[in-house]
Amino acid sequence: MLESVEVGAVIPAAGSGKRMNVSVNKIMLPLLGRSVLEHTLEVFLASDLIKILVLVVKTDEKDGVYHQIRGIDNKYGKKIVFVDGGAERQESVVNGLEYLRRWTGWKVRKRLVVIHDAARPLLTKELLRQSLMAGLDYGAVGIGVPLKDTIKQVDSEGIVVATPDRSKFWGIKTPQIFDLDLLLECYQKVNESGLLFTDDCGVVEYCGHPVKLIPGSYENLKITTPEDLILAEAILRRRENADRPGI
Ligand code: C5P
């Protein structure tokens, strides 16, 4: 079914290491012998479904990132395109989408875009495939997980004002998948409004288009604070051992 569409990927990687308490961009940090970014890219490079891979990086980090990932694209015979990031994630994503809009390599009319945070190195090939299938069906899809903790709404003093019903809330992750034309149109409206969103589904919701959430994996965590790296390492080790039964 996915043969009737072409898929481009946008990987926003132009963030920082502020909440990790490090002075470098957290995606450059080592994780089991490779950088966080290399783990993330590999899933997309290895997927036959992805036609073009747009990596959004800070202008002054381009050389460093290029140096770090040199060779990884050759291994899979797929080119990675570098695009400049912006001050906010939203701006970085828009820059990546603009590249896809102008790209002349599309061969079919139906185009999907998958957006995935560079800081999520634990996405599996299978979840990526499932997400793309759902994207084809619904045109706007997010990957989420039911929340484990109870949620409290608080005021500016930290006083609880409400305890919403947890069963109605999901934590939203990436990848998020969209019909490319739909997302471009929605981002244009949002940019005119001046609003800022922390995820791309929010942009489509703002434009009144339905967004489908499909269940993902708790393992698909975002490297944000130092303990996330410890968890990510443990998960990767377990996966490696599962690939080598008997050890
Ligand atoms: O900061 P946070 O972890 O929420 O960022 C999510 C993703 O967006 C990360 O992969 C980060 O590199 C990227 N990002 C970006 N441009 C920004 C801020 C974040 O590409 N200005």
Word description of this protein:
This protein is 36% helix and 22% strand. With 247 residues, it is an alpha/beta fold. It has a seven-stranded mixed β-sheet, sandwiched between helices. A hairpin with a 2-residue loop joins strand 2 (30-31) and strand 3 (34-35). It starts with 5 loop residues before the first strand and ends with a helix. 35% of the residues are buried. Cytidine-5'-monophosphate (C5P) binds next to helix 4.
Task: Give a quick set of tags describing it.
247 residues, alpha/beta, Spore Coat Polysaccharide Biosynthesis Protein SpsA, Chain A, 7-stranded mixed sheet, two-stranded antiparallel ribbon, 36% helix, binds cytidine-5'-monophosphate
Chart the SSEs and their pairings.
Blueprint: E1 6-12, E2 30-31, E3 34-35, H1 36-45, E4 50-57, H2 62-69, H3 72-76, E5 80-84, H4 89-102, E6 111-115, H5 125-138, E7 140-146, E8 153-154, E9 160-162, E10 170-179, H6 180-193, H7 200-206, E11 212-215, H8 226-243
Parallel strand pairs: 1-4, 1-6, 4-5, 7-11
Antiparallel strand pairs: 2-3, 6-10, 7-10, 8-9
Helix pairs in contact: 4-6, 6-7
The structure holds cytidine-5'-monophosphate.
Condensed summary:
This protein is α/β, with parallel strands linked by helices and 247 residues long.
